[in-house]
Amino acid sequence: MPDAVSLAVVYPDLLGTYGDGGNATILAQRLRWRGIPAEVVEVKAGETVPATCDAYVLGGGEDAPQTLAADQLIADGVLAAAVDRGATVLAICAGLQVVGRSFLAPDGRSRPGVGLLDCTTGRTAVKRAVGELVVEPGPDLNLPVLSGYENHAGLTTLGPTARPLGRVLTGIGNGNGDGTEGVVCGKVLGTYLHGPALARNPALADLVLGWIVGPLEPLDDSEAEGLREERLRAVRAASHEGGRKRWRLGR
Amino acid sequence: MAPKTLPVRTRTATTLGHAVASLSRRLGRGNGSVIGGRVLLAVDRHALGTLAEGHRAALVSGTNGKTTTTRLLSAALSSAGPIVTNLRGANMPAGLAAALGEGEPGALAVLEVDEAWLPAVAADVHPEVVLLLNLSRDQLDRNNEVRSLSTSWRRAIEDLPDATIVANADDPLTAYAAGSARRVTWVAAGQPWTADASGCPSCGGRILFASDGGWACDRCDLRRPIADVVLDGTTLVIAGQRLPLLLGLPGRANRANAAMAVAAASAFGVDPGVAVAALATTTDVDGRYRSLVLDGVPVRLLLAKNPAGWLEVLDIIGDNDGPVVVGINARIADGKDPSWLWDVPFEHLRGRFVVAAGERSHDLAVRLHYADVEHDREPDLRRAIAVAERRRPADGRVDVVANYTSFMALTASIADA
After folding, report:
1. pTM as predicted
2. How many CA atoms are closer than 13 Å to the CA of B285, on its beta-carbon side?
């Protein structure tokens, strides 16, 4: 019996507003269904992040708790050391901003991030990005079109050693004007996709799992694929409807 | 009809609003109170304050239990005189103005108020009592800062020095909001869902929860207030009495709602024993908790629209192991992002058969899949009940749990039948 793959949910009490804890449930179940034991550890704020987990999952959260989370992770130092050792990180929304180099706090001051992703995040001057987000992944990732829901005021710019997760087809994504979504550096993946991201995109879940355990047998994903396709259809229908409305207003 | 003592503008506004509402009703567009209220406020934007004059008022707000608590408080106060209250969750200024415009002069006003609208409504209505039930995540796409609601409530309450605030002492977010009040009745009503209160609403520190229900911030002096009224299982401890709560509504959450209602009724001078007896007669709140035979299937209808509400509903439906139909929509009134389904411990339903229904049945089916819950998917709620019926034990029933617009569609389809 191999050792169980251990997955840490980092500070669900600070970074858990949008159901992103589901990503850890999904990763663990997809391992178990393939006969690989998996355990999920919840690390609450104030607790020390365990050093030996195979993967760390961070979710979205409100502004003030996000700053608290970044400060604690920097002081704790474990997460950065784990990535140096080869651990995988999946960071969603506020989580992405926290593990970047810096982000803008609500008081307008720039705050340091953990520095696992080569990116910096400002705040949008226009309205908050809220709605369905559709992403065409980078060709080397070998993934189908990704679906999710975004809800953030971040404006994320990639540094020279980062690459985006993909290109925005519908929605805002990184929001810096270059049409990109998400940030990937080695085995650290950040994205603005909620839903949760891995519920709607089983192939993305297996990409992350592949980084942890290597090649994987396929699973029956008809239900999750059904959800992804339904969401993509809904976005197409809405943009069609939006086009018609604009046309009517233009008359 | 609008009483003669009102200013001409308000009287005209009320008459017009009333006419539009009854037209809307006759056209079959719902009960008309929202559209009627909008017309009313468009003609006289101060109408809410004017119409509230002469009414002693209680405002009821919170994420969960607003409608039920409003109904329970109306029942508890029934011995004190005529009541005017808003119907069917029309809980923003338009709905409130419409309700007050149709109320008897001098009637006690018991008003359910949307969480975000509470400060504005309180400033207009000058309530005698305000009930703060709980705050938690709801409608993720809009309320991304639940703690800021607590802060805005606190400011609104500072401006109500003469009001009695009846607040849940077990929820840090309501406790902080009520902390600025001169007169508070603290009710230990419970709040099993704590995930939205781990950041201190006062200083941003961490709230630590003890297993006995106590809580305190690790940085500032915010801590659980000493309760004046305690819900102890099925017993209400109030004013030195221990009153058994025999309710017509199921579950812990409704005993909490009843505790808040009795505490508020007592602030209006109604004896707690009289209040408890009066609210026991409430058995159905706009179709919620209702048991009936639908298309030949014995069903019980429940509303759950967010993770905190689901925790309470899982407690209620844990009384049997029959099939469950769950209806999930993601319209504006539900919040357009149903990611919160992943914050609900659907794993509790393992061993039961679940039918995923509603416009977002796919999202729910995937959630149930990962929870290892045996399930089927049928978007149409009435047909989903038929699917569940095949797995119903002979003497059992089907529990139907739906979120807001899914529930409304179901009750409307029953009313039309």
Report:
1. 0.90
2. 25
